[in-house]
Amino acid sequence: MTLPVGLDLDGRRVVVVGGGPTVVPVVHDLLAARALVDLVAPWVCEDVAALAVRDEIGWHGREYAGCTDLLDAWLVVVGSDDVTTDTAAHTDAERLRTWSVAVPGTSSDTATARLPRTTVATTPDGAVTVATHSPDDLLALDVTRAVALHLETGGVDLRRRSPRPGTGWVALVGGGPGTDDLLTTRGRRLLAAADVVVADRLAPRAVLAHLPATVRVIDVGKEPGRHTVPQEAVNDLLVAEALAGRGVVRLKGGDPYVLGRGGEERLACEAHGIPVEVVPGVTSAVAVPAAAGIPVTHRGVARGFTVVTGHDELPAVPPGTDHTVVLLMGVGRLARSAAALLAAGRPADCPVAVIERGLLPDQRVTVGTLGDIAAAAAVVGVANPAVVVIGDVVRLAPDWDTIVHEVEPAHSERARSTSWSDPLRGRWVGAAVSR
Ligand code: SAH
């Protein structure tokens, strides 16, 4: 057994024996610890030479000369690629009562101390160094990597047990649309550190169930037309919780900055000096069409796309059907939006898809044209949340070719169902396509 210790090397002399690539990571760690590094080696690799040229280390360009090289050193780091030299350096250090370590990858049999494998975990409350000690270096490396992965994927509860003395923090986390597994790793990691989670209606709510019971979840879910919690009240809530010293995750659907009022929430927090991090999310504007098999751009079909709210009057958009228009919040005014695009020059046969509850088990796709989509949507009773895609790319949906595309009276509605498998979940995602 060994005793793990942390050495304060600030301003203290450390001698490194060897100058090849294996010593480079250790030399960088020594410099980060502000040690005074003297390196003895007849030749050095480029990285070490660069440090010597910049005077960040001292380099003695010769063979190791014995105990005299180690005088005044607090620590000796050995890794010369020559077993005789390494053994001599370890033995001399022991004679001088100076600890010696072998750089990873070289024999440590005669060393008197062991370097741990380390990883630095960043938490909202600061960095934490995790060090792993084992005589089996590969095992130490594997364990260290496993710990790092565990911390990074948010599987660990990193919340503070008591409120912070000063101001807390706010993270505006984009949760992606529909399913709960489009949340980013960064988002998960922050959720694991939050004291309070303020959740939207369209946020991936399934993740809330896995939070520790002590995390306070505040639901500010909004139904369209029924703004249960006004935006100003949400801003005030974030500010108040963070000023009370808490870590706050504002969990939103899609991306915080795509028609998500993330900018307003950030400014409100910053006005009170609260540190804010914005974590991008997968936006429904791109992911929900994709879930229906529609790429928003496609070579030779569409070179760009416009995302716009369908909640208000539409702004001018390129009239060509090779430019994709994506409407969010577009159900209520679908007829008026279609009429506006027709009036602005889009042809009546321009394909349109309405994807409701994208990436949820009951996702439904309704396809039509600018001329008839409003009628088709009314017949099947299209409801929020839904993404409307307008442009030639809709023809790339797997369902497009299998339906009749003449404009028909709305009452001759026909419904079709298609489904495709989700290999990760082993469940079936169904989509009814109606015309
Ligand atoms: N910031 C979000 C959008 C918020 S506006 C994002 O980047 O995705 C809310 C609108 O997003 C809804 O009216 C709907 O148009 C769309 N939306 C969000 N999730 C959806 C889903 N699972 N299926 C279909 N549309 C969705």
Describe the structure.
The protein is of the alpha/beta class. It has four domains: 13-115, NAD(P)-binding Rossmann-like Domain (Rossmann fold, 3-Layer(aba) Sandwich), CATH 3.40.50.720; 118-152; 169-282, Tetrapyrrole methylase, N-terminal domain (Cobalt-precorrin-4 Transmethylase, domain 1, 3-Layer(aba) Sandwich); 286-432, Tetrapyrrole methylase, C-terminal domain (Methyltransferase, Cobalt-precorrin-4 Transmethylase, Domain 2, 2-Layer Sandwich), CATH 3.30.950. Helices cover 23% and strands 24% of the residues. It has ten helices and 19 strands. It has helices spanning 24-32, 46-53, 83-95, 137-152, 185-191, 231-243, 262-270, 284-291, 334-343, 373-380; strands at residues 13-17, 36-40, 58-60, 75-78, 99-102, 117-123, 126-132, 169-174, 196-199, 216-219, 247-252, 276-279, 304-309, 323-328, 351-356, 364-369, 386-390, 415-422, 427-434. The protein has a five-stranded parallel sheet, with helices on both faces. Helix 6 packs across helix 7. The N and C termini lie far apart (74 Å). The model is unreliable at 404-435 (pLDDT under 50). S-adenosyl-L-homocysteine is lined by residues 177-178, 202, 253-255, 258-260, 283-285, 288, 328-329, 355, 357-360, 384-387.
